[in-house]
Design goal:
The complex is a heterodimer of chains A (107) and B (420). Chain A has 107 residues and is α+β, with helices and mostly antiparallel strands. Chain A is built from two helices and five strands. The radius of gyration of chain A is 12 Å and the shape is globular. Chain B is built from ten helices and 26 strands. In chain B, the strands form seven sheets. A five-stranded parallel β-sheet of chain B has the order 3-2-1-7-19. Chain B has a five-stranded parallel β-sheet with strand order 9-16-10-11-12, covered by helices on one side. A five-stranded antiparallel β-sheet of chain B has the order 22-23-26-25-24, sandwiched between helices. The chains are: A alpha+beta (107), B alpha/beta (420). At the A-B interface, helix 2 of A face helix 3, helix 8, strand 22 and helix 9 of B.
Chain lengths: 107, 420
């Protein structure tokens, strides 16, 4: 289990506990956190579960694979060096304390 | 004035996302969601792919968790079908006799699979795929290998079922009356590539052939598929994937304008301005296609939901989203952006044989649609290009070293930028 914080563009935050084997995307959906669409259901097709990992985060994330890297070219909001697809971030104990910022729009 | 009471009929992607988008915009009025199926069970894309193969768990089928509706104060009525609408009294009558009043009504009634109009179409083992129950039955019948599966219709559902069943080791034949697969949706380049992939995996694909009858055994189970010319193919199981029919019965009780779907305007209002329709059942004017269309996709349902919610909140949006769609067969990730019908020029970029390419469709020199196979960056960038005023010419695509990733980033000029 990991505690994940989702920060909305207006600054409000939602903190939820997410169990493995969910992803950071699924953690948002299961807990009714607004701001993540995930139209493709988490199959790295659509880019509508885009998040920005907090710049100060020390949580170690899995490496980005080439498909995720490619899908991030299609996000509605600007991609930055902190951009990830939340459906490609499996929740493990290692993600405990992760803070992600939600973009202004997903589609 | 108090916020209006909204009744949404249909608890699939379009209906659920409308309710969610209304609350997402701060709508405070009453919302009632009426559906045949519970709304936490309606996400359909895995039904012909991972779920059918036994790989995706049932939880992946949830559109929203059950708690969502309670938290958002969305009243749910499932299993009590809406049978008629009285637009003058503004009430929906349910099968139980209950009358639910509305100020705004949203029809998200969806569609049902078309049946095959041939003798034997109602035999046992002749299935269509639409609901979770359909997928469960098909999955159960495919868990007993090896089966001889015949698929009628080389559209997305038919071909995804064929690929999944082939992956499970069944013997598969696909028949389509059209001379090419996915003829309505894809350019010839991609449809022949898809068929080649099926054949390479041992699926028998028969194009330009008509199914004339299905014959059963003494127990009424399908046994033979008969084609024009008399050819007979042994079948233990048949899946019919020949398109869908929009549910318009309820709309007709309200005297709404109907014609291959419930006819709506660019704001998704029906011929009664207090009634909206969206998703599979709605026929809307598409500025991209220059005509009315019905689109059966998650993207269309989700984006139209935002538009309907905006309309109900008196914040008018026109529906102008770039349609997009995906399919996955044998590891080929196919992603479609825009609409390719009516193209007069096609330029292919990449390695078609190797299964990593994009097909760019143009009409009068203007980009109208892009099909990508295992090129997700091309897909995402194309969606942005199609939503913006940026032009891409056939010559640019043909130029040596062409790479969409090198284009400067564009921002969509029009976007339904409503977060749910």
């Amino acid at each position: 289990m990991a505690k994940i914080t989702y920060q909305h563009p207006n600054g409000t935050v939602t903190v939820v506990d997410v169990e493995a084997p969910n992803t950071v995307m699924r953690g948002a959906k299961l807990n009714n956190v607004d701001g993540i669409e995930a139209q493709c259901g988490g199959s790295a097709q659509c880019g509508t579960c885009h998040v920005y990992v907090d710049e100060a985060s020390t949580v170690v994330l899995p490496e980005m694979d080439p498909v995720e890297d490619d899908v991030l070219y299609g996000t509605a909001c600007e991609r930055t060096e902190h951009s990830r697809l939340s459906c490609q971030l499996p929740v493990t104990e290692a993600l405990d304390g992760l803070l992600v910022h939600l973009p202004e729009a997903q589609s | 004035m108090a916020a209006p009471a909204v009744v949404v009929v249909g608890a699939g992607q379009a209906g659920v996302e409308t309710a969610a988008a209304l609350r997402g915009r701060g709508f405070t009025g009453r919302i009632t969601l009426i559906g045949d199926e519970p709304p936490w069970a309606g996400y359909r894309p895995p039904l012909s792919k991972g779920y059918l193969a036994g790989a995706a768990p049932a939880e992946d089928m949830a559109l929203r968790p059950a708690s969502f509706f309670a938290e958002r104060d969305i009243e749910i009525r499932v299993g009590d079908r809406a049978t008629s609408v009285d637009p003058e009294r503004r009430t929906v009558t349910l099968r139980s006799g209950l009358r639910v009043p509305y100020d705004r009504l949203v029809l998200a009634t969806g569609s049902r699979p078309r049946q095959l109009p041939v003798p034997g179409a109602s035999l046992g083992g002749v299935l269509t795929l639409r609901s979770r129950a359909d997928a469960d039955e098909l999955r159960a019948r495919l868990s007993d290998p090896p089966r001889r599966l015949v698929v009628v219709g080389a559209g997305f559902i038919g071909l995804e079922v064929a690929a999944t069943a082939r992956g499970l080791g069944h013997e598969v034949t696909v028949v389509d009356v059209q001379r090419r697969a996915l003829a309505r949706a894809l350019t010839p380049v991609l449809s022949s590539r898809v068929v080649a992939e099926h054949r390479a995996h041992g699926v028998r694909v028969l194009l330009g052939r008509e199914v004339t009858a299905l014959h059963g055994d003494t127990e009424g189970q399908v046994q033979i598929m008969e084609l024009d010319g008399g050819e007979r193919i042994a079948a233990d199981l048949a899946v019919i994937g020949v398109g869908v029919l929009p549910h318009t019965d309820l709309a007709l009780t309200a005297d709404l304008m109907v014609g291959d779907g419930i006819v709506v305007d660019e704001r998704l209002r029906t011929s009664d301005p207090d009634i909206y329709a969206l998703g599979d059942c709605a026929r809307f004017p598409s500025p991209r296609a220059g005509r009315h269309l019905r689109i059966e996709s998650v993207q269309n349902a989700s984006d139209q939901a935002k538009c309907v919610a905006a309309g109900i909140c008196d914040e008018p949006f026109a529906y102008t989203s770039v349609p997009w769609f995906w399919s996955e067969q044998y590891g080929l990730r196919m992603q479609l952006a825009g609409l390719t019908a009516g193209h007069d020029e096609v330029v292919t970029s990449g390695d078609v044989e190797g299964g990593r390419f994009s097909v760019f469709s143009f009409r009068a020199g203007r980009l109208i649609g892009v099909e990508s196979v295992n090129r997700p960056a091309d897909h995402g960038i194309s969606r942005r290009l199609l939503a913006s005023d940026t032009t891409l010419t056939p010559d640019e695509v043909r130029a040596p070293g062409f790479d969409l990733k090198k284009l400067p980033r564009t921002s969509p000029t029009e976007r339904v930028a409503v977060r749910t």
